[in-house]
Design goal:
Keywords: DNA-binding, Transcription, Transcription regulation. It holds the Pfam family MarR_2. It comes from Nonomuraea ferruginea. This protein is mainly alpha-helical. It has three domains: about 1-120, no CATH class; about 125-215, no CATH class; about 220-300, Winged helix-like DNA-binding domain superfamily/Winged helix DNA-binding domain (Arc Repressor Mutant, subunit A). It has 13 helices and eight strands. Helix 11 crosses helix 12.
């Protein structure tokens, strides 16, 4: 959500985002609902080297409700400290002061404005953005399965470079993030562009929000299905899509109008690739998507949640 304001400020707008802009501007009611949140974000999230971490709580990875609830629980001391730091980079209007003081009604109004903004600017495009994110995750998962950590980070080139134990990337400011034994959470973002982003406070859980590959944005489902067909063959792709809901070998054969022998053969290949699980269910054999299979399938049909940023 936060990064959508950066896309509004882009001097040269990427063609990938034009359908999003056009739909927003075509609906006056949607633009009106965005207005309070846009005003808030344009002040608190300026184009510059810093914006407050409290606007992007870690809990936001669980969804909008969790993120807003965490934002409203932000300790007053932290609100004041982060807004003082923001004030070093730009003058702040008087209406920011009650936020810095942790004023309950003001924070509730802020939460309502951000919710309205999200519902107008992001929610209508959640399925489309989600499918693009899922496609990117599927590509990253394949790199990890094939080459481990080295294979994963090799797929990020030239955005990032991995020289163990250091991960280097272009960033808006020169800084080091020392994990100190903590894990780094990689978060794909539909609205992030050019360079990854992380939290300003190094003591917060390490997160690196990165832009998904451009090729995954705004591609029709038919094109993504064609890619999967080309990758594994039309019949095998059809079997994977049919297992969006678990099915037995016999059910697969009936749904796809192929022989049980062919259905079993395709299922075996998918199982060996780690895309499905197979288990006995009485006298039948039941096939179910694995998380990797689900990620690959969602990359062609939608369903993943976009980054809260």
């Amino acid at each position: 959500m936060i990064l959508t304001r950066f896309r509004f400020r882009d001097r040269v707008r990427s063609p990938a985002f034009r359908p999003w802009f056009e739909e927003l501007h075509a609906d006056p009611a949607r633009s009106s609902r965005m207005r309070r949140g846009a005003r808030l974000l344009d002040v608190l999230v300026p184009a510059g080297p810093y914006f407050p971490d409290f606007l992007t709580p870690y809990e936001g990875l669980l969804g909008l409700d969790s993120g807003l609830a965490a934002l409203l629980r932000t300790p007053t001391r932290r609100l004041a400290a982060e807004l003082r730091l923001l004030a070093r980079h730009r003058p702040l209007p008087g209406w920011v002061r009650p936020i810095a003081q942790g004023n309950g009604p003001t924070l509730q109004e802020m939460g309502a404005a951000l919710r309205d903004y999200y519902e107008a600017a992001v929610a209508p495009f959640r399925e489309l953005a989600g499918s693009a994110i899922a496609a990117d995750r599927a590509c990253r998962a394949r790199g990890l399965l094939r080459g481990g950590v080295e294979g994963l980070f090799a797929g990020f080139a030239p955005l990032m470079s991995w020289t163990p134990p250091v991960l280097e990337t272009e960033y808006v400011v020169d800084r080091d993030l020392v994990l100190g034994g903590r894990g780094l959470r990689l978060v794909p973002s539909y609205f992030c562009q050019r360079t990854p982003m992380t939290l300003a406070d190094p003591e917060l859980p390490p997160v690196l929000v990165y832009p998904i590959e451009q090729r995954h944005r705004w591609r029709p489902a038919a094109e993504r299905r064609a890619d999967l067909d080309a990758l594994m063959g039309a019949n095998r792709s059809a079997v994977l899509h049919a297992l969006d809901h678990s099915a037995t070998t016999t059910q697969l054969a009936r749904m796809l109008r192929i022989s049980p022998t062919a259905a079993s053969r395709h299922a075996t290949v998918l199982r060996e690739a780690g895309l499905i699980d197979t288990r006995r269910d009485g006298t039948a054999v039941l096939h179910t998507l694995t998380p990797l299979g689900t990620a690959l399938l969602e990359g062609t049909t939608g369903g993943a949640q976009p980054s809260a940023r």
